[in-house]
Amino acid sequence: MAQTPATLDDFRAILGALPGPDTDAAAAAADRNGQLTKPPAALGRLEDLAQWYAGWRGNGRPALENPQVVIFAGNHGVAAKGVSAFPPEVTVQMVANFEHGGAAINQLSKAFGAKMDVHAIDLDRPTGDFTETPAMDDADVLAALLTGWNAVDPQADLLVTGEMGIGNTTAAAAIAHALYGGTAQDWVGRGTGVDDAGLTLKAQVVADGVARHKGGDGLDTLARLGGREIAAMAGAILRARVEGIPVILDGFICCSAAACLQAVAPDALDHCVAGHVSAESAHPALLAKLGKEPLLSLGLRLGEGSGAALAIGVLKGAVACHSGMATFAEAGVSAG
Ligand SMILES: O=C(O)c1ccc[n+]([C@@H]2O[C@H](COP(=O)([O-])O)[C@@H](O)[C@H]2O)c1
Ligand SMILES: Cc1cc2nc[nH]c2cc1C
């Protein structure tokens, strides 16, 4: 069991000494892949996925039986600026919906055999409006990172991190603008469905926030511009790395959390795949910055882990073929 970090510098130290994949297991998986009853590369990206999964699980012929979906919810001070099409009370209302089994992610978790947990983080205490103050101080961002860290089941063999938070596409856009530059317009999108005036306002809010909170590393950016659910996703993604649990990333907000880790350690997301590209307009650019090719492109813009949960099915398919198929020798099929 990994030791629980106690300070932000403990998180930075973990990012500075990340475990890599098991190269023997990855080599065994590559060898096995070459013997399976199919023309070479006929299973396309499924073959790469299975070998990637084998390396991170330390097993050349792995099973995928215990996926975990964790949803974090947070409220955002910047929502008071009018940057969302929905009011902030929807965050707590949707948490109740998750808990009663009525949200999309409940259905998708069930459909793909994942256990699902929900963590609402201080919803009655929104983060600071980042156009005026840092969203979180060090104690707040540490607490949120630890919520994510502690939410991961070390027995899980796959993790999906999802979120719910009215206003969080504005926070995610601010993180991306701070980390990658460009203009605020490059990184804002319609989120829950703001109109053209809302989009213009959102770009101004992001520009103001990023101008106010310059400098620092990825964790500083996470604190100043992010949100509690975003920090919790970052903490969970990092814990998964330490436990050897592969991660499927979800949409724009989830990827902004991941980006803060990668900004500190360039290899921090090697145990992650991108589940999908969402319809949030800047998600393709963010995925490009992360160096991730999405598995699915279905026009989703829901969040709550939905696109990543769907991709559990793709990864399960990849692992089932890799570990269950017969070899040419076993099946008595002539190799080409
Ligand atoms: O995952 C995405 O790419 C995504 C894109 C647009 C909206 N969302 C969801 O919508 C909420 C944020 O939208 P907004 O307009 O309030 O910033 C939040 O609860 C997210 O889960 C999520
Ligand atoms: C209804 C609703 C459901 C959501 N799920 C994730 N983000 C959401 C935003 C809204 C507004």
TrEMBL record:
<dbReference type="GO" id="GO:0008939">
    <property type="term" value="F:nicotinate-nucleotide-dimethylbenzimidazole phosphoribosyltransferase activity"/>
</dbReference>
<dbReference type="InterPro" id="IPR023195">
    <property type="entry name" value="Nict_dMeBzImd_PRibTrfase_N"/>
</dbReference>
<keyword id="KW-0808">Transferase</keyword>
<dbReference type="InterPro" id="IPR036087">
    <property type="entry name" value="Nict_dMeBzImd_PRibTrfase_sf"/>
</dbReference>
<comment type="function">
    <text>Catalyzes the synthesis of alpha-ribazole-5'-phosphate from nicotinate mononucleotide (NAMN) and 5,6-dimethylbenzimidazole (DMB).</text>
</comment>
<comment type="similarity">
    <text>Belongs to the CobT family.</text>
</comment>
<feature type="active site" description="Proton acceptor">
    <location>
        <position position="304"/>
    </location>
</feature>
<dbReference type="GO" id="GO:0009236">
    <property type="term" value="P:cobalamin biosynthetic process"/>
</dbReference>
<dbReference type="InterPro" id="IPR003200">
    <property type="entry name" value="Nict_dMeBzImd_PRibTrfase"/>
</dbReference>
<dbReference type="InterPro" id="IPR017846">
    <property type="entry name" value="Nict_dMeBzImd_PRibTrfase_bact"/>
</dbReference>
<protein>
    <recommendedName>
        <fullName>Nicotinate-nucleotide--dimethylbenzimidazole phosphoribosyltransferase</fullName>
        <ecNumber>2.4.2.21</ecNumber>
    </recommendedName>
</protein>
<keyword id="KW-0328">Glycosyltransferase</keyword>
<dbReference type="Pfam" id="PF02277">
    <property type="entry name" value="DBI_PRT"/>
</dbReference>
<keyword id="KW-0169">Cobalamin biosynthesis</keyword>
<comment type="pathway">
    <text>Nucleoside biosynthesis; alpha-ribazole biosynthesis; alpha-ribazole from 5,6-dimethylbenzimidazole: step 1/2.</text>
</comment>
